[in-house]
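Inverse folding, one chain.
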């Protein structure tokens, strides 16, 4: 959770909530919990301390705080999706499996006795993780596929547990459990595996073209003298692989031609204009 939180801050409360669940479970069992909690918090804090040390070493703390207060809130307001759209797409890759799971939950609730057994702390933790993943997905308001990964990870675990439990029942429950596990094992898993093994996120063709151009224009001598102006990360990735540093610290043109201009975008445009004149690039990548 600590390492994930250095990339996506919503992962931090997930770790803390799960820690609370475990501590409560340990106390109910009469087991020592203070040392467990202390080591857990220390483990979560370690990656955050590493990031803080890195920012301090690079003298970037002020820039980080400035981004948190300005650029990040501005980006969060861009192109928000409606709540209905977000909910519909939150589980869309697993929709057939989720429908079978809902049938299992309803059928299991209908056949339970008047005093249903309480779920163990592990299942409570999964439900809380699922809720936090959903809140994180909705809070980002963009609906990008990778925003739903934490939600789907906890959801798949819960579905697998409930379908496995349904196999030990009778009638509709057993049939739904068998159908659901068959869909997951024979359709969802192979399709996902195929997509993973055939996906190439390295953009080698773009890198080869851009790298060839940059080598002809100076290669290693372009470090601190080249500037990307693109709306995606192809240029930045190419410079990273060639170990070239940009003229300025600006990565994208998203903030320079904004649909919703404001104080943040005007300040960034002014800083970029100043940085370009202080160190004029030999090469622009547009």
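Residues assigned per position:
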């Amino acid at each position: 959770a600590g390492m994930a939180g250095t990339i996506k801050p919503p992962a931090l409360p997930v770790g803390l909530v799960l820690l609370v669940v475990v501590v409560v479970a340990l106390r109910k069992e009469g087991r020592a919990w203070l040392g467990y909690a202390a080591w857990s918090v220390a483990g979560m804090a370690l990656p955050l301390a590493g990031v803080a040390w890195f920012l301090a070493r690079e003298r970037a703390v002020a820039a980080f705080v400035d981004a948190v207060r300005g650029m990040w809130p501005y980006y969060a307001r861009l192109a928000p999706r409606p709540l209905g759209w977000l909910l519909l797409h939150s589980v869309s890759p697993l929709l057939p499996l989720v429908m079978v799971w809902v049938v299992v939950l309803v059928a299991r609730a209908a056949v339970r006795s008047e005093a249903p057994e309480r779920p163990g702390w592990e299942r409570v933790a999964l439900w809380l993780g699922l809720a936090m993943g959903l809140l994180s997905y909705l809070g980002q308001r963009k609906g990008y596929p990778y925003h739903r990964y934490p939600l789907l990870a906890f959801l798949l675990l819960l579905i697998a547990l409930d379908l496995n439990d349904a196999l030990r029942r009778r009638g509709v429950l057993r049939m739904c459990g068998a159908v659901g596990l068959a869909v997951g094992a024979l359709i969802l898993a192979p399709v996902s595996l195929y997509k993973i093994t055939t996906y190439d996120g390295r953009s080698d063709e773009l890198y080869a073209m851009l790298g060839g151009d940059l080598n002809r224009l100076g290669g290693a001598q372009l470090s601190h003298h080249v500037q990307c102006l693109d709306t995606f990360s192809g240029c930045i990735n190419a410079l990273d692989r060639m170990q070239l540093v940009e003229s300025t610290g600006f990565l994208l043109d998203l903030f320079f031609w904004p649909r919703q201009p404001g104080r943040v975008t005007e300040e960034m445009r002014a800083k970029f204009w100043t940085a370009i004149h202080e160190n004029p690039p030999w090469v622009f990548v547009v």
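The beta strands are 226-228, 283-285. Residues 172-198 form the longest helix (27 residues).
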